[in-house]
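User: I've been trying to design a sequence by hand for this structure and keep getting stuck. Would you show me what you'd pick, starting by listing the structure so we're on the same page?

Assistant: Good idea, let's start from the same input. This is the structure you sent:
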């Protein structure tokens, strides 16, 4: 059974940068390589919302709130996906989750708190 293990997160000041890391363990390299990976975030009382996705061919898609500030990338050799977040804002405060949606795998969540 595969799972996604996240690292990163924490308390940040507005304007700072942070990178979240997600590693797929127990997932074959072929499955990781051939599937889209994504990052979502959730705030209390709200549903998870898409932040960014990256397809197997490297094409990326961003929520309007993330475009221009966040960068999703992947390293297939390491079964890893990253979310670099620049120019953080207080409204970016949320729990961030990575996902391999095709298999309904989700990371454990990473709290990101941005103070003004």
């Amino acid at each position: 059974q595969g799972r996604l293990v996240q690292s990163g997160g924490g308390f940040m000041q507005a304007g700072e940068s942070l990178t979240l890391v997600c590693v797929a363990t127990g997932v074959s390299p072929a499955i990781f390589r051939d599937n889209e990976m994504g990052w979502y975030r959730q705030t209390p009382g709200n549903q998870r919302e898409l932040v960014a996705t990256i397809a197997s061919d490297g094409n990326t898609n961003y929520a309007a709130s993330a475009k221009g500030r966040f960068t999703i990338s992947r390293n297939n050799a390491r079964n890893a996906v990253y979310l670099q977040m620049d120019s953080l804002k207080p409204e970016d405060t949320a729990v961030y989750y990575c996902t391999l949606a095709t298999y309904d795998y989700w990371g454990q969540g990473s709290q990101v708190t941005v103070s003004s």
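That's my pick for every position. To get oriented when you compare it with your attempt: The chain has a mean pLDDT of 97. The helical segments are 29-33.
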